[in-house]
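Notebook entry, structure prediction.
Reason for the run: the old model in the group folder had no record of what sequence produced it. Starting over properly, with the input documented here first.
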Amino acid sequence: MSYTLPDGVVSKTIDTDRLKIHYLETGRDDGEPVVFLHGNLASALFWDNTLAAMPAQYRGLAVDMRGFGGSDPVTIDATRGMGDFADDLDGFIAGLGLDGPVHLVGWSTGGGAILRYAIDHPNRVRSLTLVSPVSPYGFGGTKDVEGTPTFEDFAGSGAGIIAPEMIERLQAGDMGTESDLSPRSFMKGFYWKPTYELDSDREDALVAEILKTSTATDVFPGDVATSENWPGVAPGTTGVNNALSGKYSDVTGFSGIDPKPPVLWVRGLDDLVVSDGSLFDTGTLGQLEVIPGWPGADVYPPQPMVSQTRAVLEAYRGNGGQFTEVAIEDSGHAPHIDQASQFQEAFFGFLGNSG
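New structure, fully documented this time:
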């Protein structure tokens, strides 16, 4: 593998009061800080080209979240939802001694984490950019725009819906494409439009980053609880996928924070991961007969993830905040990669207006 970081992007680590964090950095030390968080089964390297293109006035900092990339594989307390990730972010910001509010960017799971951070520390946020963010009601277990639980125990969400073969292939360091559940196949099929092609060296490097994910039960995906409700599994108490469950991850309180930083919401119109019919949502998979025994749309419909996000952001606007939605055509779950130019135009323009 011969991939090297883009010019101006450097790899660093910092020991915070919570854990050792690996991160990528670009820009001058006195630039406006912009901190990036990645999604599940990813790392800071997925922001490399965005960092390389940052205008000169900014200091870009892309963080490996706990258990991913080069950061410590510390237990994720799922019962805190996005709390561990938000507190880690706060420790990182404090560890670098960043003064004043910072711009925050979160992709997928990272989107939920920065919303939680904004709830906890609204005075420390200059702007928020949500890139294909997980719903404010979490991933799985809710059935309408108001986030009503499908079942009291949020059955059908959490670590139990992750295919065991995916975990086995992560543990085996699988770099191939023999299975749809290999990291490479999964990345190419769902992170961006399957028609999008990366440079082979960069693709290899991103697969290698996914393979750094800790598969300790308390990190990825988490422990599994059984349920009397369909489809028979419910969230446990540790690990990232349980932390993402609607049982624990509710950041809808964001709509009422004060002060209210400006928000940019960017999403791909062909996103198969976070959508109103996500191919990773139990309701969708039941409807498609992938998971047998589906109790029907009146009991367990697909989670309206995008509609839930829009409703919370509209409530934010109604409370005096402002947000801009940018929906990019011919783009999947990672518009900052498969439509980098369009993403950067919207993102850098937003930062310039939020400075």
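Summary: The chain has a mean pLDDT of 97.
The old model has been moved to the deprecated folder.
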